[in-house]
Amino acid sequence: MDQVDRLRPSTHLTLKVAAVVSTNITVGLLRDIYPSATTREALEEDLVELEQTGFIRQSVTNVNSWQFTTMVARDVVYGLIPSSQQQQLHAKLGEVLTGYGKKVPTTAIAFHWSQSCLGDEVAEWRRAVMAMRWWERAANEAGEKWALAEAVRLYQKAADLASILARFYERREERDVAEFMLKGQESEASFTDAFSKPSSPSLSPTIPLLKRVWWERRMSDLCLLMSENDLINEKASENRHNAKKHVLTGLSLLRAPLPGDDTMALGEGCQLCARIVQCASGKAKGFDATEFGEEGSKHIARFLEILFSLSVERPVDDRVDMALLNYCWKLTGYYRGDAADEDSSLYRITQKIKKARDGFYTGEGETSRRYSQTMDPSKII
Asked: Less packed terminus of the chain by CB within 10 Å, N or C?
């Protein structure tokens, strides 16, 4: 701390900006995000002083790049920067690095956009949306390289940001609905018209629902794949558990009931709104899968396929999880419309689940022989 205080004001500021960049510090990058007017010569002079005082050192592989001598020193300096200034610098850095294209790792760009709105995701929702886009891109790249665990981690970062925005704006919608009802408006048509109109047309901060569902589907697929690759590994059980968790999260976003839920499961928040809309639209007893479009129906079918796989393919004890199988069966009755189309993927998985379940209850087939006595199929929904 004393060393920092003894630096010249310009060098002190350069050190703080360098702490935001963190690694691969270059004169060009510092100049691009510097919060005040400066010159290349002035920055080079500051870097020489910082190198002499032991804060940074020149890169071994690139003479035009510097890095902190220790990350502890970097973290101490970073902690001296007010959070609002940290966010501004990260936002500027995210902008600059975005323009660099493929020269910069997508994870680095996503990280800086995330840091630019950390703790203020709702107020800085535009930055949060940029972070989600880059986390998704980084996750896609990791998946293509078969870095499966890394891909799941990166998709989860995008999903977490989307969840923060969704919870806030769904609560705002709940307040709008409550205020509308208190005004004595009882017409279903007038209610649904008002509910469909956003309070602030200029704001569109949330990621589309089916995009969030796709992330959960992708994570469940990756977790299931990892569990199949590690049948003997102790992480196989954990990966299967995570696959199930992501499936149930995706289904909750699609307004499906969850295991043990006696009422309509409504996803994250917005329970009051969703219940009212269900009643107003006459859909309180289930939903037509086609209301989510062809893409939504495919997501539902894939989620059912994964749950079905988890229920009948248990590498540890080779028994059928009848509670989970029964839950799959109840879901097939919950989604209507597309499930009746014999050419649809939802119809095909419905028939597969029906065959496995009927095999148990009639005492015939592989399902019956491998039924897990530890499961109580009656305690499911």
From this structure: N
